[in-house]
Amino acid sequence: MPQRATKRGPARTRLGGDCDVLICGASFAGLAVARELVGCGAEVVVLDRYEIGERQTSACGIPTAWLTALGLEQSLQQSFGELVIHTPHATARLELPWTFSTFDYRTLCGLLAEQGSFRFETATVQGRRGETVQTDRGALRAPLVVDALGWRRVLGTGENVQPPDALLSRGLEVHPSGSGADLEVWIDRSYVPAGYGWSFPAGEELRIGVGSFDPRFHVREPTVRLAGELHAPPVRYQGNWIPHALRSATADGVFFVGDAAGHCLPLTAEGIRTALYFGLACGRELSEVLAGRQSREQALRRYHDFCASHATAFRWMLRVQRLIPRIAPRVLARALGAMERKRFVDWAFGHYLEIAHPRFVGAEGGAPRRTIRAAA
Ligand SMILES: Cc1cc2nc3c(=O)[nH]c(=O)nc-3n(C[C@H](O)[C@H](O)[C@H](O)COP(=O)(O)OP(=O)(O)OC[C@H]3O[C@@H](n4cnc5c(N)ncnc54)[C@H](O)[C@@H]3O)c2cc1C
Asked: What element of type H or E holds 222?
């Protein structure tokens, strides 16, 4: 059980000292790393600027099998067997070979944290020198440092690339009360020239948003417009930059996981299951170091190579992301009609799930060497 210590005001005492593993970021990626370290007897510290689960970072949609594999079903809000895609000239209903679900962020993070064994501290991470991480509450030192802080890659080396020049998409959504039966996507240039709009029902809430692959295109107005057309008030905003290109998963002795390593998939901007997947992989490498079965340098190399072995899939998805906005809307509508065929949908979505398959969770019992090769 993690010890929670969300410090406020004068309770924000100075932090200092050493630990074995320092995980910066307590969302999907960081908590997945921590989960894999349970039982290793090491002193693990997890830091986040907010309490665990306090600030939702996405529309919280994921293939249901990931929730099941990780024992997180309690967080599930609504499941969908179809994906409805609207274009200006046609609507396609794709019958998925697996279901997709929305979940409650706070519940999921709480459940995932319970699977770990670590000390949690609320602190804003500011930077790093060698093995020492600087926070607004003081410095902590660890030989194993993980950056799971999201796209800013706070612990990276050198100048960080900032939007709009970085390979980032822009996403914004509103969370009005309401309900719906369908998982819906809009590929429509009247909302966004390159990107898509979405409506993800989650029990008594709708998550309606617009994402632009071009970081220069502002998505607030189309998000409000889409919500209006769905008769939902634009309330409770949530937005962020979303990476759409892999970055090096290791640098200067640090492990980068999730958005910090560009692990979010291009085209769909699905970054939760990949943050979990690469988080598990990273955690397994770290636990081998803690057990004395490999050095930190070996773990860095193996984790780097594992992430890099997925580069082809990420590159293909980026190609499709760049291609779709160039297709004339009428041609796209015809193509979608053809894509509705079950055999095609099964093939495409089957390959898509393989990029970060939930069976990877169950592979945890084996040695990482075998586990990782089997899943790669
Ligand atoms: C509008 C929108 C909707 C999305 N919808 C989906 C979706 O439905 N499904 C999906 O799969 N993906 C979705 N994504 C993408 C998904 O949110 C990310 O890919 C995913 O959250 C990455 O997980 P992560 O753990 O790497 O980073 P994050 O979830 O961003 O977590 C980073 C953590 O680090 C903390 N942090 C950041 N900086 C600091 C600091 N300096 N000091 C201390 N703590 C810090 C944050 O508080 C946070 O807890 C969406 C993205 C957006 C913007």
From this structure: helix 220-229
